[in-house]
Design a protein that fits this description.
The protein contains 7 helices and 9 strands. By secondary structure, it is an alpha/beta fold. The structure holds NADP nicotinamide-adenine-dinucleotide phosphate. This is NAD-dependent epimerase/dehydratase.
Length: 208
């Protein structure tokens, strides 16, 4: 049985992922590094309170075969610095594979700063030389976040209408439910082939 560490477990994709990892017979221990306590109790769950600044202090409590990163936010620190440190520490503590959610269009050459940062973290995670580096690049993350944000609801509604029209070369822009992105990550971890693998919509769908 495996041990996993998850960064971003309180988020939309991360909360589905945590639930799925805890309910998978393949994992004996799931460590979630969160900023505040999650309302979850589970015999396999090792919940640690921390963030980018305090992560080094938690090192001794982290033990992992795999590291999953679903962190998201508004600053480059959360898209780059934190995931990089998380992966470095997990590797130091035994992780052989890293699974991260970035975004469709991620490229270190992008002119858009969000996509450039996503590309830079992909590039620098690959450079850490895990046995397996799996990069998940969703377009719109669909589903109910359980919070009401008007703009987000409108964007999601528009995306739901557009979704069937993303075909051929642009099908990678199809939206995918957070729960399915999480499931694709878990399935990829069941059989991690290849040193570096990039997943767009179709690649994730094929894993479901
Ligand atoms: N939304 C989309 O449609 C979309 C599309 C493509 C790609 N993506 C990418 O997909 C990934 C997952 O997205 P999501 O919607 O699941 O993210 P989310 O719901 O916003 O979750 C973000 C996670 O990061 C944590 N976090 C945020 N700021 C932090 C900080 N300063 N220190 C420590 N932890 C922090 C949050 O913890 P707290 O609960 O403590 O805040 C939460 O666990 C992100 O990288 C995002 O850029 C999103």
């Amino acid at each position: 049985m495996k041990k996993a560490v998850v960064f971003g477990a309180s988020g939309f994709v991360g909360s589905h992922l945590l639930d799925q990892l805890l309910n998978s017979a393949e994992y004996e221990r799931v460590t979630a590094i969160v900023r505040s306590n999650l309302p979850i109790r589970h015999p396999k769950l090792n919940m640690l309170i921390g963030d980018l600044d305090t992560l080094p202090e938690l090192k001794d409590q982290i033990e992992a075969d795999e590291v999953f990163i679903t962190l998201g936010g508004k600053t480059p620190k959360i898209h780059y610095d934190y995931p990089l440190l998380a992966a470095q520490i997990a590797k130091e503590k035994g992780a052989k594979a890293v699974f991260i959610v970035t975004a469709v269009g991620a490229s270190s050459q992008s002119r858009m700063s969000y996509l450039r940062t996503k590309g830079e973290i992909e590039r620098d995670l690959i450079a850490l030389d895990f046995d397996h580096t799996h990069l998940f690049r969703p377009s719109m993350i669909m589903g109910n976040r359980g919070e009401f944000h008007l703009v987000e609801r409108v964007v999601l509604a528009i995306w739901s209408v557009l979704n069937p029209f993303f075909i051929g070369g642009i099908r990678r822009y199809k939206g995918m439910k957070a729960s399915n992105i999480a499931r694709a990550m878990l399935r990829a971890a069941q059989n991690p082939s290849g040193k570096v693998k990039v997943y767009h919509w179709k690649d994730m769908k094929d894993l479901l």
